[in-house]
Amino acid sequence: MTQSDPSSGREMRANPLDRVTERLIRHVAGHSSRRSLLGRLGAWATFGALVPVLPVERVSAATPTKAAPSPKAPSPFAAKAQTTDPTACNYWRYCAIDGFLCASCGGGIHSCPPGTRPSPTSWIGTCFNPGDGQSYLVAYRDCCGQDACSQPACLGTDGDQPSYRPQANNDIIWCFGTGALVYNCSTSVIVGNAS
């Protein structure tokens, strides 16, 4: 089959691929309008944009997460410490306490019982909290002014220092400056993070 080129006046031979392509295009053009073609192209473009947000299980792309290892307790007290009962001697804040717990004597973890006064000085300890895996600086303050509480005494020795290092010695009665040197119980106040 030959075609003529109107610009040059010569005849050209048609390639079989060109003929098939021309017939396909003419068939599509005869059975559809420009608007429907643009509408379909728009629909496919919209669908193509929505494909990435479809809920697809991406197991192969997910990296397996390993549970963080629980931090190792730094002392024998910390290995047995608990975080729920502040009236028990193994409560995590009591790692360096020596005496009666104000939480068991009518006060709180960090508040003195009625009728007693907190000492202006304290000794310190560093206690490990097994609940969050952090170590905290804890100040222990004696409550003074009444006879000792009748509860059993607790003794925590983490970081206990000799008497010549009084800031970390839990054997000293710290009621200096309260007006009465009568010891009642001890409180435990978190001062800050020790990490």
From TrEMBL:
Keywords: Disulfide bond, Electron transport, Oxidoreductase, Periplasm, Signal, Transport, TTQ. Residues 82-192 form the Methylamine/Aralkylamine dehydrogenase light chain C-terminal domain. This is Methylamine dehydrogenase (amicyanin). Its EC number is 1.4.9.1. It catalyses: 2 oxidized [amicyanin] + methylamine + H2O = 2 reduced [amicyanin] + formaldehyde + NH4(+) + 2 H(+). It is found in: Periplasm. It holds the Pfam family Me-amine-dh_L. It comes from the Bacteria. It is an enzyme of class 1 (oxidoreductase). Heterotetramer of two light and two heavy chains. Belongs to the aromatic amine dehydrogenase light chain family.
